[in-house]
Amino acid sequence: MARGRDWFLGFLLLAAAAVFIFFIAALFLGGNEDSLDLATGKRLGLVEVKGVILDSEPVVKELERFGEDKSIAAIILRIDSPGGGVAASQEIYEAVKRVRKESHKFVVASMASVAASGGYYVACGADTIIANPGTTTGSIGVIAELVNTTELLKKIGVSFEIVKSGKYKDSGTPWRPFTEEDRRYFQTYVDDAYNQFVEVVAGARNLSKEEVLKYADGRVFTGQQALNYRLIDALGTYQDAVALAAEQAGISGKARIVTPRRKRVTLFDVLFGDLEGYLQRIQTWPVLRYQMIM
Question: How do residues 91-108 score in pLDDT, each as one tens digit?
């Protein structure tokens, strides 16, 4: 009995040791992009800006986390976005600049298929902007889209009575005709956001405001055209951006890339999701947007 018990305990110890070794190997030597680079102790952080930019908070938090992480030597900002809300785009842009200033880490913006309007605005915060020759970028401009339903309501016999505290309080409402005074009011609103965009591009690209205005009429450009207009720094792929970030960070060999930890999506999330969050996003869709319209 004693010999059998000793054999069983030995087996348990060997099994525990095997599990421990497997865990250590997976943590430090495996293919996990979030593992530690034993050769240099340095890694690259990857932050993605995808789709319409509505909520800046997740991207800003990822940037701040990588800025504070001493094992992250440089950051790749991968952008595949047609733009989005003015304020959300501005907050991400400011976060990129803040991380560069406070952490002294190199940030390269890598443009995917689309990095236009607010997507281009965000890229302007980086040290270097790289795009594919066929990337769609530019679209420097602002748009405000307003819906007017007065003709439809008239046909179905519905009218609205509005009580307001000032003459502009209901400007842009779909329940009454859009007046020339409303148009002048919204034009000044759009123009101010547009001037902010132009000034950011001029400062980031070391161009005069007059030079930027030549291309800041809402047009989109290929990556090749953007390079010719000095709106980006170089043509290249995502892999080229990784190589540049590694070089700037002093990483030799293949660089390990850290991606932010994502919340696991369950079947319940797929079926029901964050319905309240989705509804809130629809209700707060920004009227004023740095966004390319196709």
Answer: 999 999 999 999 999 999
Question: Cα separation of 124 and 235, whole Å?
Answer: 15
How far apart are alpha carbons 18 and 258 in whole angstroms?
27
pLDDT band at 16 (very low <50, low <70, confident <90, very high): low
Segment 13-31 shows an average pLDDT of 50
Task: State residue 7's pLDDT score.
Answer: 55
* Assessment of whether the complete model's pTM goes beyond 0.90: no
The conformational region for residue 223 under phi > 0 = left, psi -120 to 50 = alpha, else beta, is alpha
Amino acid identity for residue 252 in this structure:
S
80: exposed, middle or buried (Cβ count in 10 Å: 0-12, 13-18, 19+): middle
Domains of the chain: 38-141+207-261+270-291 (3.90.226.10)
Owner of token pair 């504070």: 68
The residue ranking higher by pLDDT, 210 or 266, is 210
Q: Exactly one of 103, 117, 139, 171 is catalytic; which is it?
A: 117
Catalytic: 103? Answer: no
Angle between helix 86-103 and helix 180-205 axes, rounded to 10 deg: 20
- Asked if 169 is an active-site residue, the reply is yes
pLDDT value, residue 94: 97
Q: Which listed residue (101, 154, 164, 169) is catalytic?
A: 169
- Alpha-helical runs (H) found in the chain: 2-28, 57-68, 86-103, 118-123, 150-156, 180-205, 209-213, 223-228, 238-249, 267-271, 275-283
